[in-house]
Write a structure and sequence with these properties.
Elements lengths: L1 H18 L14 H6 L20 H10 L2 H5 L2 H14 L5 E2 L6 H8 L1 E3 L5 E3 L6 H6 L9 H14 L5 E6 L1 H10 L7 H9 L1 H25 L3 E6 L9 H16 L3 E2 L2 E2 L2 E5 L6 H4 L6 E3 L6 H8 L4 E6 L8 H15 L12 E5 L9 H18 L4
Parallel strand pairs: 1-4, 4-5, 5-8, 8-9, 9-10, 10-11
Antiparallel strand pairs: 2-3, 6-7
Helix pairs in contact: 1-5, 1-8, 3-5, 5-8, 8-11, 9-11, 10-11, 11-12, 15-16
């Protein structure tokens, strides 16, 4: 049913878009806005929860759909399959937000770098960017090359039928640059850091193009139906102090400056997550975003004292805690919630918290342990507010 609905919606939306680029699809009213309210630092009845990589390999139904698709990109580029796997965790768990199923490397793929995924391996680019000639060829891609992403956003938003909000996302300019130069994942980032230190002019050129590309990409997701957007600065924490500010933070700021803050009468919250970025929270507090995500190395009590006056916080359970038994998982959830403390209540705005993991969920995580996590977040956060 989801597949059939997604195919119909994709065709209808493309036809409408072709006739009138200002056409805005209509959607069901949102029934659960807890996540969006927390993003905007408004009071909520409980702490909302979702998980990075929640639509993924830890779910048996995901693996079945992936097998039907034949490849990761076959899954991501098919509107029906992308809709199906995005909805799978929302149907298993009472989570408070869905996140688009896609990959952070779709933008450089649209630049012509040739993205591929070998079974059991990470992403690889056929044409990495390692010299001046390759950098010179880079340009902001035609967003029509990413139409499959925007079609998926619209299809997912329709299929959610207002149950919970939909998050769109992209990799940060620096994180994209890491993969573009290295050609794949890396343990030491030697190639990209060599360019950074020996030819900073080339690195800045890559980052400028990436930032403008990411901004257009996220805006197009918003226009297609995303109700919040997230920037994954997955590798910002590998940079030295000083280099982080120049090569990561500055270009995240460039993206944020171009994003829609409102669309179709609704505010669109933005989230920035820098893995390993706890050292720079005071500087990240100045970013023009609504939420800062933090990994498990960050003390939430201290983070709230630094940024809670202007930003919501998202995080930050160690994903490996989910391999403990449910009783221990509940205890770790309570520690995280208590570390943040009682969120804002009443009118106006104040410090708020969105529960998440400190990074993506492991593919080996037992499904029942995720259920225990979600239940513990909802129940303990209600108790903290004095609710039943």
């Amino acid at each position: 049913m989801v597949a059939l609905f997604g195919r119909f919606l994709s065709l209808a939306w493309c036809d409408n878009y072709a006739m009138n680029s200002t056409t805005i699809p209509s959607y069901a009213p949102l029934k659960n806005d807890t996540f969006l309210r927390a993003c905007l630092r408004q009071a909520t009845d409980y702490t909302p929860v979702w998980m990075m990589r929640q639509a993924g390999r830890f779910l048996p139904e995901y693996r079945a759909t992936r097998a039907k698709a034949g490849s990761f990109m076959g899954l991501a580029m098919n509107t029906d399959y992308a809709t199906e796997v995005t909805l799978q965790p929302t149907e298993r768990f009472p989570i408070d937000a869905a996140i688009l199923f896609s990959d952070i490397l779709t933008v450089p793929d649209a630049m012509g770098l040739g993205l591929s995924f070998a079974l059991g391996e990470g992403p690889k680019f056929a044409s990495p960017v390692r010299d001046e000639a390759a950098v010179t060829k880079l340009e902001v891609p035609d967003m029509n090359k990413l139409r499959y992403v925007f079609d998926a956003v619209t299809s997912i938003r329709k299929a959610l039928n207002g149950r919970i909000p939909l998050i769109g996302f992209s990799g940060s300019p620096w994180t994209l640059a890491c993969y573009m130069v290295e050609g794949a994942g890396s343990d030491d980032y030697q190639l990209v850091k060599t360019m950074l230190y020996s030819r900073p002019d080339l690195m800045h050129r890559i980052l400028q193009i990436n930032a403008d590309s990411v901004a257009q990409y996220l805006n197009a997701q918003i226009e297609a139906g995303a109700q919040a957007v997230m920037i994954f600065d997955s590798w910002g924490g590998v940079l030295a102090d000083g280099a982080f500010q120049e090569f990561s933070l500055a270009y995240t700021r460039r993206v944020l400056a171009q994003l829609h803050k409102e669309y179709n009468g609704a505010r669109i919250p933005s989230i920035v997550f820098t893995k390993g970025g706890g050292l720079w929270l005071d500087e990240m507090e100045q970013l023009d975003c609504n939420v800062l995500g933090v990994d498990w190395t960050v003390n939430l009590t201290k983070a709230r004292a630094i940024v809670g006056g202007s930003k919501a916080l998202q995080g930050n359970l160690d994903p490996n805690a989910l391999f403990a038994q449910p009783a221990q998982i509940e205890a770790e959830v309570v520690k995280v919630l208590n570390a943040f403390g009682t969120p804002h209540s009443g009118a106006g705005t104040g410090p708020t918290h969105i529960f998440n993991l400190g990074h993506g969920i492991s593919q080996h995580t037992p499904v029942e342990h995720v259920a225990a996590l979600v239940d513990a977040v909802h129940s303990h956060s209600r108790q903290m507010r004095g609710a039943c």
